[in-house]
Amino acid sequence: MSPHNTVLVLGGNGHLGQAVIRQLISQSIHVISVSRSATQVVKGIDYIQGDLSQVEFVKSLRHKANVVIHCASPAYSHWKTQFLPMTDAIIQGFEHSETKLIYADNLYAYGQHSHALTETDAYLTTSTKGKIRAKAAQRLLDAHHKQMLTVSIARGSDFYGPNIKHALLGEGVFGAAVAEKSATYVGNLSARHSFTFIDDFARALILLALDHEREGEVWHVPNAPAISPREILHKVYQQVGAPLKITNVQGAIETGLSWIMPSLRAIQETRYQRDFDFVVNDRKFCRHFSFTPTSLDEGIAQTLAGWKLSPFTVAA
């Protein structure tokens, strides 16, 4: 298969990588998935196992595709030691090739702002993970401006979708709803929050891969209009047809539990995203690509359908 008809998906075993692969396959595009795991999640496609922090391994990929969609990330607990080395290896491995690299980023770099986030906002982050994300994005954009490789960056908010377990709208919400148990939400239930439907994130990455007019820029992935988590939970349980009960982890309770729960402790430095309004301005992407994001009602319906097919066990 010619590299001109092939897309390389880095981190193809992750939730976002899988969503990208599904959409590429639906468009009859040849896909090669790359992951550090020995287990191939998406079957029926070409798969390469390897370590993206190793320059020589990345160099071995450079002639396999002209488009690379970068969804890879080290384990959350290893960002401090592995994220930037992986970013540098990817830049060095693909530099001065014909590769176009689309990077799936998040919003950590911005830190806390008092308005809806735009692509031109300053990086005000004070968190360790936010600074890592900011440096990684800047290194990729610097490589683009130095004509080392072609880069575009798509930034998504907290995403949700079928069988995404570890997320604000993950097992504690959708898994609980399917099991007709009490929902668990970490953060302020009344603060408006932009959530990204994972298939919209995948669509946005693919559109950027196909676009040649506005390269070397940051783009916000479109989201349904931001509403409060409480309103979202009402929608979820209304679709299930179950009464809504909420266990809310916030404030002093969240602080206390973070001392004994490593997963909760790991997200304390981005607590502002959950304690206050956290809204994304996505007009730039919507206007350029005439993009309409999936509505919350439709995203919830698709997510519930996925959970009903493969439910996780939720404690009473």
Automatic annotation (TrEMBL):
UniProt domain NAD-dependent epimerase/dehydratase: residue ranges: 7-219
SUPFAM superfamilies: NAD(P)-binding Rossmann-fold domains
GO molecular function: aldehyde dehydrogenase (NAD+) activity
GO cellular component labels: cytoplasm
Origin superkingdom: Bacteria
Name of the protein: NAD-dependent epimerase/dehydratase domain-containing protein
Species annotation: Veronia nyctiphanis
Upper lineage: Bacteria, Pseudomonadati, Pseudomonadota, Gammaproteobacteria, Vibrionales
